[in-house]
Design brief:
The protein has 56 residues and is mainly alpha-helical. It has one domain. 48% of the residues lie in helices and 0% in strands. It has three helices and no strands. The chain starts with a helix and ends with a helix. The mean pLDDT is 77.
Length: 56
Amino acid sequence: MTTEELKALTVAKSVDARGTACPGPLLEAKKAIGTLHSNDGGNQGGYSEMVRQARS
């Protein structure tokens, strides 16, 4: 991603797992990803695929 594309991103979900022992932060991130809905315009192999893998 370019710097401009990164600046244009909006945060849909934020996870604060500071102070959590492993594997807590990973589990919290997976849980948060599972609550997101894809809106990538049908980009095959993009965000939709990442969410699908995280949910499995």
